[in-house]
Alpha/beta hydrolase (Streptomyces showdoensis), 254 residues
Amino acid sequence: MTGRVLPYDVHGSGPHRALVLHNWFGDRTSFAPLRAELDDGTGSYAFLDCRGYGEAIDADGTYTMEEVAADALAVADDLGWDSFSVIGHSMGGKAAQLMLLDAPGRVRSIIGISPVSAAGFPLDPETWELFAGAAENHGNRRAIIDNTTGGRYGDEWLGGLVDRSVRRSSATAFRAYLDSWSRTDFHERVRDNPAPVLLVVGAHDPALGKEAMEATWLRWYPNARLEVLPDAGHYAPEEAPKALADAIEAFLAA
């Protein structure tokens, strides 16, 4: 890792540019099924690893959404992109909104995939212990993934996501990001923001599905619209990659 530029790679060479930010349990490799479905000729997608994840697993940092946003803008600078959209999965969706606030003249639109809102994600004490304990307890990670995908997958699939998350994130970063994406609230700063927003959620996601979007994003962004994928939970890039790719490409083209 050189300076403030995160490890990244670009998929495609089309005119529709987008920075892509991963979720709490993934690094940029978690988008592999989605990448296989994207049209290389219509979009240019820069997939990033946040500090403490993937190829940046040993990178020091404060591990906050503000830092993710600043690092992602530095990647855009490195690419020479004056304007672009931001695609954020789960916690990546929260960082995408900070990019919009920090660089409103550059961020053309946001695509949130089961995205955390600007108000964060309040957790009751018992659920907080489950999430906070997931940094060290792999069983907690499995329980969270199982719940947020509607209990629809077996041990092999769940174990694969848990194993990747453990191998490709540092426990320190994983735990620190939780405070930032769940407990910080800046929704008054985004209220009535005119940016075009597409929200793509899974029908089987009880945490950040249709109801959560209606209570947060859709109230604050007047140009936001919602698309529900019937065959996905919280991990649409891996559960329903073709449907997600179609939604992304149609939105960017429009």
About this structure: DSSP finds twelve helices and seven strands in the chain. The chain has one domain: 8-253.
